Amino acid sequence: MRTxxxxxxxxxxxxxxxxxxxxxxxxxxxxxxxxAVVMCGSEELLITTDQALDGVHFSLARCGPEAAxxxxxxxxxxxxxxxxxxxFGAVAAVAxxxxxxxPDAEAMYRGLRSISDPFECxxxxxxxxxxxxxxxxxxxxxARPTGPGPVLRSGAKPGDAICVxxxxxxxxxxxxxxxxxxRIREARRLGERCELHAMIDVSDGLAADLGHLARAxxxxxxxxxxxxxxxxxxxxxxxxxxxxxxxxxxEDYELLFALPAEQAEQLVRDQPLTVPIRRIGTVISGEAxxxxxxxxRGEPLQVPGWEHET
Amino acid sequence: MRTxxxxxxxxxxxxxxxxxxxxxxxxxxxxxxxxAVVMCGSEELLITTDQALDGVHFSLARCGPEAAxxxxxxxxxxxxxxxxxxxFGAVAAVAxxxxxxxPDAEAMYRGLRSISDPFECxxxxxxxxxxxxxxxxxxxxxARPTGPGPVLRSGAKPGDAICVxxxxxxxxxxxxxxxxxxRIREARRLGERCELHAMIDVSDGLAADLGHLARAxxxxxxxxxxxxxxxxxxxxxxxxxxxxxxxxxxEDYELLFALPAEQAEQLVRDQPLTVPIRRIGTVISGEAxxxxxxxxRGEPLQVPGWEHET
Lengths: 310, 310
What we know:
Two copies of one chain form a homodimer.
Chain A: H1 2-19, E1 36-40, E2 43-53, H2 60-82, E3 85-97, H3 102-116, E4 123-131, E5 136-145, E6 161-165, H4 184-193, E7 198-201, H5 206-217, E8 220-224, H6 239-248, E9 255-259, H7 261-270, E10 277-284, E11 289-292, E12 298-300
Parallel strand pairs in A: 3-4, 8-11
Antiparallel strand pairs in A: 1-2, 2-5, 3-5, 6-9, 6-10, 7-9, 8-10, 11-12
């Protein structure tokens, strides 16, 4: 079910994108990247909007309103990380279920603030309505690029190394998806050290988001199965199941990025972040996504939910 | 029910506002006005977010997806009008009900575009999710101020005239709330001609939004009952019922504004807009909101849903 929804979203966004005809002088980056870029006078303004829905992105009954608010804000801030940008404000639209009490609303707001405050991203406005349906939170964040400009999904080049922060899989089952810290600082540090050709945050799943990045860049990729960092939360017994979870589960909110191979080598050697950086593969020309097994044999990388797309 | 919700929203926004401590150099206007104002480099950036929920702001079964999308965009653009600002982009977060078909989603999107295109406000990004709950649309709009700067709710001064565009009441029952055109051009024209001390768009109701404006400005107001323009959609039989509808129904999305009395006189004489402008009252010192009857006797202005606030 979740897989199918992801596919529909991706299809719809593609369709929406194709409908739009932007003046590139006013809208340098439209829908289809982690954030849009619009010109605000002479300044580049980055914008993202994301929703967190009870029953889809969290279970209110299970996690409570504070964790729900936290996740809603963290999801949007993760998009800011993906652009290596600096957030400077947020607005939130909240549909509260009838029967939600003031303390619940306060807890939800505390959750939002618990993750926006550390990034000095004030919540400058909001819209609150009450309905007899589940909690829905939409968070819009605006950000400015760092020195080298926003890092898009579309700049990966054949020969680039593909790297990731952290490890993957099991985030939903373990509730880690409620507790992740958006990789904003890490992304900026990477941007200061390297030429980041392309970057995305992993929400749909490592394979799916690699697919998004590759498609946006017009390239393919080879991933070394043995190099994919598998999170301890993954509880599959056999190696194949563990790899499948790491590639497919999603909700990891780690960074996936492409950069010149020699810079990646240095980066992996230096490990300048508090989270491990690992090279998992290489950008290739064409559009194939391939998974290379320990025996050196390749097979098509399975992207969950993509079966019906071709 | 709707009245109670409005009150809760207002309470919550107040509470939210009191929690925040903004650096005025970075956030000149925080929550509590029609739009927040944040500094984007040296530019003032105006932001609003608003949601349109099935069963609260529209009935999908009754109006269909295109009208729902249209209203979602129009609601947010009406906030831009209230600041006499110029929109330059929007993002939308949409929770689609399961079973929503691609043609429904396209119709919803057409509805959004039908009202953003006339104002040259491109939809630069979006987030789409699917859930087994009703349609929820959040639209965030960013705008820039016109020459004199954003018009806030808080600048009304004793002695100012209180004016409105258009007429009031019956918008929900007649479905007019699905078809209104945000008063963006009218607001700008007003801003070019007059010193707009304070302005708000009337969504909660004429009395309630007058209350918001007065409270934000720290003033009171006297409204002349005979001058309140009543919309032909109001179907109450007696004069008292018609006035009550005009003051209380809401969803009119007209402009309510305060300006120097002599400028209002000129404005009402010239009628420079295609929609009628009418003076309905006067800003007074203190905090009382009073309704003056045809016999010259005053009574407290009843603000629906506010009974429990004091």
